[in-house]
Amino acid sequence: MDSPGPVLVGVGPLTPGQVLRVARSDAAVGLSDQAVSAMAATRAHVEALARDFGPVYGVSTGFGALATRHIPPELRAQLQRSLIRSHAAGSGPEVEREVVRAMMLLRLATLATGRTGARPAVAHTYAALLSAGITPVVPEFGSLGCSGDLAPLAHTALAVTGEGLVRDAAGEQLPAADALAAAGIYPLALEEKEGLALINGTDGMLGMLVLACDDLRRLLPLADITAAMSVEGLLGTDRVFAADLQALRPHPGQAAAAANMVRLLAGSEIVASHATPDCPLVQDAYSLRCAPQVAGAARDTLAHAERVAACELASAIDNPVVTLDGRIESNGNFHGAPVAYVLDFLAIVVADVAGMSERRTDRFLDSARSHGLPPFLADDPGVDSGHMIAQYTQAAIVSELKRLAAPASVDSIPSSAMQEDHVSMGWSAARKLRRSIDGLTRVLAIEALTAARGLDLRAPLRPSPATAAVRDAIRVRVGGPGPDRFLAPEIGAAVDLAASGALLRSAEMVVGGLA
């Protein structure tokens, strides 16, 4: 478990927990003595090469397709300023604060390894901005996910030089120079190679991957909860989730999801009411019976994504890099393919989990398949429409999630006069995954809202203690069955409960932690 207090950035990898504390909990940031020493050592190599007349990429040459241009010593500081100004070329809506903070921390972590050749002063300035709660304004569009998240990172670098726009800790937008002055932070004057060192990494897409993994670690147990509520409310059986049946196909995620559902359904009078030899229901529909297979495969995919994120967190990504023996070497480690692939994979997972959730909701509303529930769970069907249009909302979101599941990483648009002739589009994959996770939250919330009404309509039979606790958490904000009411606020309340983790916590207070 990560220690409280400031996050100390050293030469070793950050943990996902440290990234989350800085990005989402506004933790302050410090720099270890070991990192300062490592940066100072490799900076000496850069300064020695800067005095050499020979061409060194990023020190005495132009960039990208302009790398053949030799830059004389008197223009090299201007070279770094020009790089940041020209590459801060983003457009579109402002990127979320948590994403920008994660991106800045991850760039700082690479600086701290000493492999970029930047001065310790550069890292100290990044740490100071993070600790002061100053967040550069970064537009959404501009990164191709190769040669790093160039435009987004350039907007953050521009801020530490005192240019561009930022938001202060209170969220007010103001010129970077004013925010730095108010916080007592001196703007950086970049020296040889430092501009390039601030923009050549996968930090934006990696930060969004770490945030997405955290979100999904909380949403997948919620998917088990809503599935259990639906199995119960639709008179399904829990026998198919038995451990010996799941062990016939020993995927770890599937076993975890099935075990969750067994615990969630334990003690249900509704399930027990039809668990008799004379029950005419032979087997449940796939959206009920196969819930652990889908949510389990989602967990296994998430575990793979977390392994990729851990590897990337242990990386020092820059081009060129400074080796420990003083060489400055070009490389291709900035290519975002490893991160882009798993971002796309997770978007596929999200769409499928949401799609199965929507199918369960639809079964509640169809009197031909709901086993005795009123059409659309309406109080007076015909006069009332019940949850009919809540399912429309789910379906619209699921349709959007399917479009967002189309992979960004299979696309590539050559850039920089064909020098950068294959790019990852990892930033785009990360942006659409964030929208997908929001959509999944909404879909699961609507299933929980509908299933809670279905459980109420099974009275006097009582649901399990766990699903009853979730139902009761919803009832604090949303009334039970009755004549039609303004439905959008009720959906909004359920979304808030899902996004905040309140629904998950209510179940875990009964059954303990869910996998």
TrEMBL record:
<dbReference type="InterPro" id="IPR005921">
    <property type="entry name" value="HutH"/>
</dbReference>
<dbReference type="InterPro" id="IPR024083">
    <property type="entry name" value="Fumarase/histidase_N"/>
</dbReference>
<dbReference type="Pfam" id="PF00221">
    <property type="entry name" value="Lyase_aromatic"/>
</dbReference>
<dbReference type="InterPro" id="IPR022313">
    <property type="entry name" value="Phe/His_NH3-lyase_AS"/>
</dbReference>
<keyword id="KW-0456">Lyase</keyword>
<comment type="similarity">
    <text>Belongs to the PAL/histidase family.</text>
</comment>
<comment type="pathway">
    <text>Amino-acid degradation; L-histidine degradation into L-glutamate; N-formimidoyl-L-glutamate from L-histidine: step 1/3.</text>
</comment>
<dbReference type="InterPro" id="IPR008948">
    <property type="entry name" value="L-Aspartase-like"/>
</dbReference>
<dbReference type="GO" id="GO:0004397">
    <property type="term" value="F:histidine ammonia-lyase activity"/>
</dbReference>
<keyword id="KW-0369">Histidine metabolism</keyword>
<dbReference type="InterPro" id="IPR001106">
    <property type="entry name" value="Aromatic_Lyase"/>
</dbReference>
<protein>
    <recommendedName>
        <fullName>Histidine ammonia-lyase</fullName>
        <ecNumber>4.3.1.3</ecNumber>
    </recommendedName>
</protein>
